[in-house]
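ok new one. same drill as before - structure tokens go in, u give me an amino acid for every spot. 265 of them this time. try not to just spam alanines like last time pls lmao
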């Protein structure tokens, strides 16, 4: 299993631990994440959590395409009104976990990482961390990811990030300026800064903390639910066929060393 879990002083630290794959998630990782969140629901010793990625080069780069999509591991329904997305339920709120979760971001966070970041209470990152959404570059609709980020970022910022694909990356500094990130830490310090916050939260009465978490999320859930209801049809209508997506992905990776055209803002 590539998901690490440590419990200490009322705080659970959940680690995406595939640094050789930039912490991309395969099907087993997706199942393991759901199991971790569900296990924490019944663990009274844990009152807050921190989510991070191993290795320092990436928080998470979404789905491991080689393991999830290219070989048809996740067959899709023949309907524009339904979608099989292995990462759709990997977040804590999707698994009915209401202890506060702080995300510690070092390096890249992109694509399917937003399923996790959109369900954290707040983010700690470094100035050198980068956020981007590659969907449009590979002929895919950014639906669930963009909808989740639209609850955390100004409209123009999330629209630009979702549309610009791999051509542009949002720096940790810019993410902080626009409200996506709540604290900037020095390189290598995001995890400790997030743990410091989580320990404070773990020291408060848990009913008050979880009630506040639910209150904050109640303010956004109605709009998000309405938006998500439209996502399957938008994805089915806008996505290129899987074979064409895979071809674009392979070509982009093949040319990456000599096609370093993205910019960070």
């Amino acid at each position: 299993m590539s998901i690490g879990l440590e419990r200490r002083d009322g705080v659970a630290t959940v680690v995406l631990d595939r640094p050789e794959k930039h912490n991309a998630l395969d099907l087993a990782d997706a199942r393991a994440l759901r199991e971790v969140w569900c296990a924490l629901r019944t663990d009274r010793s844990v009152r807050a959590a921190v989510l991070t990625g191993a290795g320092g080069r990436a928080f998470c780069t979404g789905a491991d395409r080689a393991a999830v999509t290219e070989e048809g591991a996740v067959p899709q329904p023949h309907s524009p009104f339904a979608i099989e997305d292995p990462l759709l339920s990997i977040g804590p709120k999707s698994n009915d976990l209401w202890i506060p979760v702080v995300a510690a971001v070092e390096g890249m966070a992109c694509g399917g990482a937003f399923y996790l970041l959109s369900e954290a209470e707040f983010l700690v990152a470094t100035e050198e961390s980068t956020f981007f959404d590659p969907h449009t570059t590979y002929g895919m609709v950014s639906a669930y990811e963009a909808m989740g980020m639209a609850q955390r970022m100004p409209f123009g910022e999330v629209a630009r990030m979702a549309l610009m694909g791999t051509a542009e990356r949002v720096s940790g500094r810019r993410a902080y300026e626009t409200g996506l990130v709540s604290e900037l830490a020095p390189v290598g310090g995001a995890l400790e800064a997030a743990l410091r916050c989580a320990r404070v939260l773990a020291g408060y009465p848990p009913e008050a903390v979880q009630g506040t978490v639910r209150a904050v999320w109640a303010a956004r859930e109605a709009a998000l639910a309405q938006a998500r209801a439209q996502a399957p049809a938008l994805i089915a209508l806008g996505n290129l066929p899987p074979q064409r997506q895979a071809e674009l992905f392979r070509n982009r990776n093949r040319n990456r060393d000599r096609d370093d055209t993205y910019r960070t803002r």
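The chain has one domain: 3-186+205-264. and btw The longest helix spans residues 206-228.
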